[in-house]
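Deliverable D5.2: sample structural annotation.
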Amino acid sequence: MNLRAAIAAGATVAALCAPASLAARQANAKPGRLVIIGGGLNANNEAVYRTILEARVGSGPFCVIPTAGATPDSAMASPVANFNRYGGPGTAKGVLISVARPETARDPAMVAQLRGCSGFFFVGGVQSRVTAAFRPQGQSTPAYEALMQRWRDGAVVSGSSAGAAIMSDPMIANGTSPIAFTRGVRRLADGATQDPDDTTSAFNVSQGLGLFPTALADQHFLARGRFGRLLVALLDLGTFNLAFGIDENTALVVDGQAVRTVGASGVTIFDARAARRNGRSATGIVMHLMGDGDAFDLTTRAFTPRQGKTPVVLATGDSATVVAPANIFAPWAFLRTLDGWSRSPQTELAFEVNGGQIVVHKSAAFRAVRAPGPGVQNTAAGLGMTGMTIDVRRP
């Protein structure tokens, strides 16, 4: 039964968002839910907050971890208030672990707090601050061990922006799509903290927390035109053959091998399992776009649209022709292009990129669905697309 149906059946919101009992935790044989948010989480995005709170385990507080923030002491206040808004007074508390005070990750009192948390939320900021505090120079700390144990016990772990990037290991540290496409990826030493002001000189990956070992995750994905850097990381790292680009105010929800999208925008999937490599280039990378409620199976790699969505209607006349933008890495350019392409009979689009090219293709299995009304940037609400491939040709 989903949340809306349960409320209709008479269940209270407090009961629906209450943490699971000890018996439920002991019966849960798999790690907890991951809620990986692409940044820009709106305080009114109730669906995402509820999705996190309903997956708590145990009777302890829900813990907000501000380590990524520039001023972690104050970075806790707003998310704590938001979780208390949806879970009730006293639901959430901040746990102050700071890279400026590395002893906090080994403080027995702090570690005891983590062991009692019913779930976790990592705030945004600079992702390498989190790994530098929890896994300095690649070494574990009691705080990291407590976090991982709670997650293995079934407690939910969530994070937004930098708090999303840390889920993978290695993780994307910083860099832009144009820089990534031209220069490729550079691996930073474990535990290194990147310069938050250095966003244009290199495309860096570094150690993450490893909560999401199946795939690479990136954030602010469509809003900041980051699909180029995610493609490059997927091809160059050799660690993953699956990647998820999560847009703002949107969450990728991971329950075991089942993932789904919750929120205002979409999640882009790149599946390189069957891609054909040729040096720095590759062909046949499978692509999907998941809108709100759409699902994906990590084992079968199958995309399933949310029930109730309707097929996108093909446009006619001049509006049926999609012209590739001059800069496909500009903010929202990829989303707007996909939105137009979903309504077009065109089967191929080519983007010229820094001396190379990215080409997207529709296969015979192409399908596009949507929900009613306008969505982000006046594109189709809940836009879901499948049956696509990408070819990447890099100089």
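Annotation notes: Residues 46 and 202 are 37 Å apart (CA to CA). The first strand starts at residue 34 and ends at 37.
The annotation will be released with the project's public dataset once the embargo ends.
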